[in-house]
User: What shape does this take?
Amino acid sequence: MSSKPIATSRSATGIPTGRLAVWWVLASEVVIFGGLLASYVMHRLGHPEWHAAAAVTNTWIGAFNTFVLLSSSFTAVLAHQAAEHGDGKGAARYLSYTILGAITFICVKAFEWTTEISHGYTISSNGFWQFYYTAAGLHALHVIAGAVIMAFVARDAARGRELHRVELIGIYWHFVDVVWIFLFPLLYIAK
Amino acid sequence: MAETHHPNYKKIYLTLLVLLVISIAGPFVGIGWVTLITAFGIALVKADMVVQNFMHLKWEKPIIRYLLGASVLLMILFYGAIATDVQKHEGKNWSNDAAKAAVARGIPGAHHEGGAPEEAAPEPAPEPVATPAAAPAEAPTFDAAGAFATSCAPCHGAAGAGDGAAAAALNPKPANFTDPAFWSSRGDAEIFKAIREGGAAVGRSSTMPPWGSMLDSTRTAAMVGYLHTLKK
Amino acid sequence: MATTTVDAHAHDSHAHEGPKGILGYFWSTDHKVIAQLYLWTGMFMALIGGLMAYVFRMQLAFPGKPVPGFGVVSPVEYNALVTNHGTIMIFWVAMPVLIAAFGNFLIPLMIGADDMVFPRINRLSYQVFLLSAIVILASLVVEGGGFGGAWTAYPPLSANPAYNLTPLGATLWVVAVALEFVAFLLGGINFIVTLMNARAPGMKAYDIPMVCWMIVIASILFMLSVGPLIAGAVMLLFDQTLGTGFFNPAVGGDPILWQHLFWFFGHPEVYVVLLPAIGVTVDIVATFSRRKLFGYRLLLYTAVGIGVLSFFVWAHHQFIAGIDPRMANIFTVTTLLISIPVIEMFFVVFATMYGGSIRLTVPMLWALSFLAEFMIGGMTGIYLGSSGSDIYLHDTYFVLAHFHYTFFPIAIIGGFAAFTYWFPKMYGKMLDERLGKIHFWGTIISFNFIFIPLFILGGLGQHRRIYNFQNFPELAPYQPLRVVATTALVVMLLFQLVFFWNLIKSFRRGVPAPKNPWESNTLEWTADSPPPHGNWPPDQMPVVYRGPYEYGHPGRESDFWPQNVPPAREA
Assistant: This one.
């Protein structure tokens, strides 16, 4: 039903158009998150007194969320494998596990943040917290957006349609996971 | 589709989990550089494993690797050049005193759950460069004197004599609140309107800006009240 | 999926005629319609930006006097006008016209594709762009007025409403700029992927017309440089609205960080708009010199080199901001270095013209004047790029005249060059040449009379962003120069009426345009004027046999050789 132009099916580079586009999106995300995190590192290294605030973040919650995201990446790549074998229903099932992981991540984060805010650590408390909420918040927005798009892809895949998109949303999802892989030590382990 | 390169995803996933455990355990060893390696070194390894195997960069065409490499290099350039200005707090002929003061001050009134209380840090966030009329969450009463000092004094002078730093370049000069002639030539209503809507609204110089977006009626009235105290 | 074969049947399923009704235009996914939307939105915003300049220049020439059509200009309004003039001209005129409008129109046509590879994302990018335009215009009329902290928006002025007095205006300004960034990220990815993947069979990388390369390289530059500023815009927004202190030194923030975030993007940004203008110029000059481009690969690699180098010069905007002098030394060297590849590109264009059979059509006049005027801008940049002389010249009108001698050629001259050149293809009519020449000369001559006085004033020490120079005894006597500049601006604005008259006349009674009025080689001239939906019938998509600049090929009768004409068979 989607009437694609002839242009979309061409591939002078040998890389399918959709996948090429996702990599470009990721390149732009690298510089966005890179800019934010580099700014954070500059301040964190220049302000050793922030360790008093950094000590408050709960490493166990952070670690659990890391485990959740890694597992969701695992299920996402299994979805890709299933899609390649033409198993749309299997791909949709694995994608739904990934979405479950995303929801878990957001719920844990919500619990974590409400706890911290109720103890008086808000975004305007001091320099550490403003970066903490901004960086983790930007990441969480990407988690939510990714989960929403993934739901649409899963719905199509379950009907055996547009299976190539399973790989594409997967690549995006792994990137979201990689950002967290760096956020975890920056915000939780580095005390 | 030529995507037949599927490594053993389960093995990679389990390796990632093991690395996660190590990175959590690292700080417990208590040695600084060990934590650095277990936290950030492992983060790099994990990221690399995810990118190469889950995102299939290992089998992707080289142009994608160049693209990602370029963005990462750019971020290294970004950090390297700017940190010399922002992370460091002094250099050749310059010194960032505000940052040094912040470091010395520590985190004021840190509400710790069982952490060691901060040394000194007596007063809450000291009077910074701003926070006048637009009161932050805590200030219950409006500090008209403080607002005057921050926003009005640059033109009207610290004592309201129309001799602030900017007054030198202005013609007509800013109003002189210490001069009886000022008070005999206009009433409070006109002063109130000039503050909220700007000088042009009362037929005077438009260099006097309208503060209505920052000061509601109550605060404006407080400012007028403060101006009365400047009378000689 | 990795194939270059033409998939004919995929096209028929969306065969339909042009957009239906006004709403149809905003819902179309056809790259040509989206190009029109960007073009006319950009031209409308240019009118707004130009009128803003009229108002504040009238204030400068006749301080305190009511400006006809506006009234008395207060200092607060002056700041808002100056700020938004700059912001609008860069983000809502130069970029949408040069990159989005012509990129959208030309890229699929010039590479022989039927549309962009992601038509719906293309539509989304325009919609986000339109939203950003509405937000920036709204910011001008909300309570408190428009943001007046200059297009560079340095904190604490931009972050603290107590200083800028425009809490709503400042926040909407940041939101508008951020939305514009998102729109161009979306659009840029479309351009890049389309150029990389959707080329006609036979079109190798070095067969792509230069303007397409330039727009795509510009999109890549934009994408890689805007990231940190997007992060910075979020930080600024939070400082404005949530009470954070990213840029507040009292709580451990650093205003210099904003400057770095801004200029890390801001400098590559000027090359983001320069490269497409050069691309347009190159294509026009080649066509109207009837000569092969002097050094295609040289030009291409130079453009890439400029792109890379542009990431290493940004702190020349901060020489007197208190950065470490040793950093200033490094940035002086890199800044002076970058002038070399730029002038080298100009040499390529001159060498292309040398020995050619020049046709002085209106597009050619615009392209040549771009070269001349931009050179003045570039040469004056040398004084600013050297940190020593910049100590005196920073923030004076010398800087202002320098960047208008670069931006005006890029956006306005480049815009008119592209518009007059591709008008026949876009609308199927020819523009009137005589009116075009009158418009051209009127604009160019008055342009110089605006900014040469401003160079002089800058050299005399006149600072930027000041409302009334009568307050400065040492500068007040030079008021006649300011009056000259303002008068020239009014004259220039009046000459734009000639352009609009030309448009109306040509739309109504213009000579119908043939497919290839300029006898050019590139693929867009093989489609109808204007091209239908899908550009060519699905079974007649072009196939490419040679590069785009085979003019004056020895041994051939005709002095041009279109890319899609099969080689002559051996007799």
